[in-house]
Write a structure and sequence with these properties.
The chain has 159 residues and is mainly α. It has 5 helices and no strands. Pfam families: DUF3995.
């Protein structure tokens, strides 16, 4: 079995993805401003204004991202048959939603680039979102999907 066949590669890579993403959220929630201009539009304006409910939301998203990484670590070992099914479905669903979120945003940004959609975002942020942030979301989704699929395959082969 080659290295890429092991679910651990996807789980640990996905965990690192979640951890990095959570750290960025915690940094921004704590008042850090480096890189926030790459988001543009409403998010950038809210980050500058430091409105309490928005900052609370950024803290919350950081914790959700961290929980996503901890969830992936649950896939490192087999559980009961029912728990395996639940973990597989949750991991697959999370991956699909993350991937589709990024993809939907990529499509929206492309529409904005060709003039079919008007977004309140400057060109700098648009490029960052199109070539980094949205593909980053899609990468996370792919890692969750691959981890879930490998988890299911390994759990099935051990039963």
């Amino acid at each position: 079995m080659g290295m890429i066949q092991h679910k651990e590669v996807y789980i640990f890579t996905g965990f690192i993805w979640c951890l990095l993403f959570a750290i960025i959220s915690f940094y921004w929630a704590g008042g850090g401003m480096i890189g926030v201009n790459t988001l543009g539009g409403f998010i950038y304006n809210q980050a500058i204004e430091r409105e309490a409910s928005f900052i609370a939301m950024v803290w919350l998203t950081g914790f959700v991202k961290l929980c996503g990484g901890l969830f992936l670590l649950l896939l490192l070992r087999p559980w009961s048959s029912m728990t395996n099914r639940v973990l597989y479905v949750l991991g697959l669903l999370a991956g699909i939603l993350l991937f589709l979120y990024g993809l939907t945003n990529v499509v929206s940004l492309i529409f904005a680039c060709i003039g079919l959609l008007s977004l309140q975002i400057d060109d700098f942020a648009l490029r960052w979102r199109l070539f980094f942030w949205e593909p980053f979301w899609m990468l996370g989704g792919a890692l969750f999907i691959l981890a879930a699929l490998k988890f299911k395959r390994e759990a099935k082969s051990k039963s």
